[in-house]
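the two lines:
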Amino acid sequence: MLKIEGLSKAYRTGDVALSSVSFRVPRGQIVGLIGPSGAGKSTLIRCINRLVVPSEGSVMLGEIDLTRLGQRALRRQRRRIGMIFQEYALVERLTVMENVLSGRLGYVPFWRSWLRRFPPEDVRRAYALLDRVGLLQHADKRADALSGGQRQRVGIARALAQEPDLLLVDEPTASLDPKTSRQIMRLLTEICAERRLPAIVNIHDVPLARQFVQRVIGLRDGEIVFDGAPAQLEETTLSTIYGADDWQAMRREHDEQDDAEPSQRLSGAEA
Amino acid sequence: MSETAYPSTWRRPPRLVKHRGWRWGLWFGVLLYLVLAAGSVEVDIARVLSGLERGQRFVSGFLQPDFVTRWSDIRQGLIESLTMTLTATVIGILISVPIGIGAARNLTPAPVYLLCRAIIAVSRALQEIIIAIFLVAMFGFGPFAGFLTLSFATIGFLAKLLADDIEEIDARQAEAIRATGASWWQFIDYAVRPQVMPRLIGLSLYRLDINFRESSVIGIVGAGGIGATLNTAIDRYDYDSAGAILLLIIAIVLVSEYASGMLRKYLQ
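prediction for all of em together
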């Protein structure tokens, strides 16, 4: 479905964020992208929908090379790529419904979006998605009136409103508490399974990634240093990705969280 | 551990002028200049006294304002001023929104940005009275020149503040809308407008206030409105009518200030 080859990004300042990254994601697979901050996770997923313009390499979504498109064609392809953000990135002064419908912007002409006259099937789909993420009764609230977990659900609904062929998820749980984080990850995995959607999830929380994703790619200094099933992730690999000290500290922190809520962990494991 | 004799006094090191002598010298120079400058102003006691006397007459006129004698003039002036203010504000807003968008570095390519910033710079560089003098010379006395002056001044004010506000929008929200495949206009509508609208409304109401106050000033150089009426009244030594006009201006400014404050609070 998605084929990335030799993808590199060097910023104008000379910082190399990615150097020759290649991998493929088949339909329905959830890939967790792990690595310390500054490893290039964020840059990598932004190079896919060209919020960041890559310096070299190709990104094939189906048969189309996203790196070679003009502005108009790029917008058409962006519709096929849903994106979910750290800190939700909802437009705070718009209503929940407007935020979900904004996922349709690439499909409707300007006058429809301006007058908020979306086609009936778009509106129906938006309601269905809000129902799916459990926020149907909040449709007319302003986005900034919701809690963190609710906002991220709206973010998910907005991405799905695009009817995407690929989900890019940037640190979906970074600003959520551990319990809500798991709920959000569970919702994401369920939805990807329902729709056979491939997803790339940037996640720095390794235990959470292990719990929910089918494949892990480890980045360090812009290069892939691990690619395999979560079970294959060993202490030594994680120490290479994160550096020994940081990895130990992260693991201790997570154990403490788990001790605090054992029941959550069980229900998480079931899912 | 050995005992070290740490100093017990500390003074903030001088930042600007390091040398002690120079510091004292500079202070002395400034003082000397002030004394000499004050000495060069000619104070004519006789003129001060007659001025005070006229001031007294003015104050007494102000205390006994005469709304009646010149009411038709005052009324016409007020209507002219209010019309001028409102139309100039509306037209000014309509023109400054596109210019403001064009002058936001994060939305537009460099040539458009520079052009729009240049328009703003010209509008802001020229004070209202100077523009009014030019436009009165071009289009003759009366409120039309005033309307043009205020519209022009509004553009500089609103477009600059709007552009600055757009440049400070939350980049994450903007990125999220861009990622949906939205076109440029949809991006403006969904990512930019919701973030800047409350401030734009607040600024517009504030500009309405300013424009009314300015309309009474530019009237003095011939651009019509209540300022022209006030000028005439003072020229005729009609201090009681002038007092009435001043009271009306103060009242209207207070009312509009209060009303726009309420409206802004409601919109937040």
